[in-house]
Amino acid sequence: MRIINLGEKNSVLNNFIAEIRDHTIQKDRMRFRRNLERIGEIFAYEISKTLVYTEKNVQTPLGIATCKTMDEELVIGSIMRAGLPLHNGLLNFFDKSQNAFIAAYRKYGKDNKFTIQIEYASSPAVEGKVLILADTMLATGSSVVLAYEKLCVESHPAITHIVCPVASKDGIEYLSKRLPHSSTTLWVGAIDEELTIKAYIVPGLGDAGDLAYGSKH
Known about the structure:
alpha/beta, Rossmann fold, two-stranded antiparallel sheet, 30% helix, globular
């Protein structure tokens, strides 16, 4: 699996990552969602550089222009709720994409142990297409792997891009062992060293779903 950390280079992405981490700025939910959307747009632009383009002639008012356009079929899949603002950013750039949505949550048992439960998934066929699977945070990696497996029960993408703005080293290692190596790229904006006993990323940013849409019972 190829890993691309955009945060290693200086760009405005790092400003947006800093703001979604900042506990003071986080209090503005609209700003938090908009920052995630802008992060999604940056990832979409970078992913666009890896896609296949073909030349086509475009009729202008004054003549014919030869342009290179992206003609690949894309499916953008997001893990709800936290992935929704990120999904919007990706879709702003890849506006002709088909869309998939996966509802996943942590079901806790004894001693803070949990399993990932997937209750709902809505997706077009991904066979032969470019799949972009987005989640705001990559902690253990279990949600992303289960979402990928859910989307690929009956068909398989030609290429998969995983977009996770903030990731843990443990989560990256988990994905590396369980997703197709040659056709998968993981895009991150920051990599954090630590997971707590409850599998929260440190320093991380907190609960992205709650920060974007309010606390849950």
